Amino acid sequence: MEKTLKVEGMMCEHCEARVKKALEAVPGVESAVASHKDGTAVVTMSQDVPYETLKKAVEDQDYKVID
């Protein structure tokens, strides 16, 4: 199962790493790939994780998820 989030505020590879780490710490998330160039984070999950849970993980790192 995969979800793509639009993420605002990532400027570099360090930002990508912070978003990736935050998302991968969420239970049920298998992996995440963040791209500052595309402004996205693609999340692969082993079970359905609520959108709000993913959004909070990103926004807790001071990035904005655009609905």
UniProtKB/TrEMBL annotation:
InterPro entries registered for this protein in UniProt: Heavy-metal-associated_CS, HMA_dom, HMA_dom_sf
Domain HMA: from-to ranges: 1-66
Gene3D superfamilies linked: 3.30.70.100
Coiled coil: none
Entry superkingdom: Bacteria
GO molecular function, one term: metal ion binding
Keywords: Metal-binding
Pfam family name, one: HMA
Protein name as annotated: Cation transporter
Species of the source: Candidatus Copromonas faecavium (nom. illeg.)
